[in-house]
Write a structure and sequence with these properties.
By secondary structure, the protein is mostly beta strands. The chain has 6 helices and 26 strands.
């Protein structure tokens, strides 16, 4: 029964967008709400304020959420680290991705470098209980440019840099169709977190628990890419690309694909991406993906059971090549749906799924938004089972007044597990159910 309900919800709705960004679309507004949240069966009264302010290319988003027990106690995970206080500022930004200058500080919802062969749709704050402050900064001087990502200022994290050049742009070859806009890129992404490359654990009597045994240090990945715009006009554009990626001390791989964009003059906009992935042993494409913060390292201190992304990487042998496909459809500026899926030829547990949607027509009395991510999918029946490889969010709401929303939220997310020194040593699934009343009032 649960599987049927989940299929129906995803079929109706389909990553989670920053809660109300899509609703107002670069407009300033004041938002807030209250409700009751059941977290793993325990009730909490919830109060939330989430205003956003936009002035030209500048934007600021705030997000303050308080969860109070029936006894009147603030839930401990709300404000137990310095980053929790800082993350009340959800983001500060200048410009948008693909602008000549783009800077965003705060929560990173879907950070991507280049074509995404190393970092794709990376999210630094999957757990609301362990939100992080990171930064994205891109600059494009037309003939050359730079993309950068840093995942968190509160601890050692992920640093990513991609430089690119278009060497023919201002030569006489630049007037030749296709090759005039050819682009060459080079990337370096490293995770400096102390759990970035742990492949085994051991019992430490002094610590009275399990600790990393084999720890190789940083996770370093570098890549080269080439992009070739085949054609581009106001309605249709198409790019071909080839990427090569090497994971230091592990394996390498490459991918070839295309990106096709169709602009339907505001009625129907379509973006599709399709690639063939060629993988050697000990290689995983798009290593820093949407679930990476959860996959990096997780340890059960009582039993020693653990899982890490580097362990999966080490065991990735004879996985074979594979396909990746993505489709984004936007209808009439009110309905967005994005879906992507990976499957490798020889690895039965290689399925990676990302689905998202938002339906928020300004003139209608309902809203619907949802997001679903799952990694290491084995078969179709495994797709719709919520577990420690899944992230799911959905909200269905009704607007009795233009700026008032009555909704029901279901959130399958994660809460951090901490050691005796309050260090995060992994995450465990957390289920939230929240009837909510919210207001979103635009500022003219």
């Amino acid at each position: 029964m649960k599987r049927i309900l989940l299929i129906l919800i995803i079929g109706l709705n389909f990553s989670v967008f920053a809660q109300y960004q899509g609703l107002m679309n670069d407009q300033s507004y004041v938002g807030g709400g209250a409700g009751v949240t059941w977290i793993d069966g325990n009730p909490f009264y919830t109060f939330r304020v989430f205003p956003e302010f936009a002035l030209g290319k500048f934007g600021v988003g705030l997000d303050l959420k308080l969860e109070v027990s029936p006894e009147g106690n603030l839930r401990s995970e709300n404000f137990n680290t310095f980053s929790d206080y800082m993350s009340v500022i959800r983001y500060v930004r200048y410009g948008h991705k693909k602008d000549p200058l783009y800077v965003r500080v705060g929560a990173l919802d879907n950070a991507t470098l280049g074509h995404g062969s190393i970092m794709y749709l990376y999210n630094n704050s999957l757990s609301y209980d362990n939100r992080k402050i990171g930064v994205q900064a891109d600059v494009d001087f037309n003939t050359f440019g730079l993309e950068t990502v840093y995942s968190t200022f509160g601890e050692a994290g992920i640093l990513g840099v991609r430089g690119f050049v278009r060497p023919l742009q201002y030569t006489h070859f630049g007037k030749i169709p296709v090759i005039g806009r050819i682009e060459f890129g080079a990337s370096y992404v490293a995770d400096f977190n102390k759990y970035a490359d742990v492949v085994s654990v051991k019992y430490d009597a002094a610590e009275n628990g399990f600790t990393p045994d084999e720890k190789n240090g940083n996770m370093d990945i570098w890549g080269l890419d080439i992009g070739l715009p085949v054609f581009s006009n106001k309605v249709l554009s198409m790019d071909l690309y080839y990427d090569y990626v090497n994971i230091a001390d592990y394996g390498d791989g490459s991918s070839v694909g295309f990106i096709l964009n169709f602009n339907g003059l505001g009625l129907v906009d379509v973006r599709t991406k399709f690639e063939r992935r060629m993988n050697n042993d000990q290689f995983l494409p798009s290593y820093f993906n949407s679930m990476y913060e959860i996959e990096r390292y997780s340890l059960d201190n009582s039993t020693g059971a653990f899982i890490s992304k580097s362990q999966l990487l080490k065991n990735a042998t004879n996985t074979g090549n594979g396909f990746y496909g993505e489709l984004l459809v936007e209808l009439l500026g009110t309905f967005d749906i994005l879906g992507s899926y990976q499957r490798l030829d020889k690895d039965p547990k290689s399925g990676d799924l990302h689905l998202s949607t938002e339906i928020s027509p300004e003139e209608m009395s309902f809203i619907a938004r949802a997001g679903y991510d799952k990694v290491r999918i084995e078969d179709e029946s495994d797709i719709f089972t919520l577990d420690d490889r899944s992230y799911f969010f959905t909200e269905l709401g009704y607007k009795p007044l233009p700026y008032l929303i009555v909704s029901m939220v279901y959130h399958w997310t994660f809460t951090p597990m901490r050691d005796n020194s309050d260090n995060v040593i992994g995450y465990e699934p957390q289920k939230k159910i929240e009837p909510r009343i919210s207001f979103v009032y635009p500022i003219k």
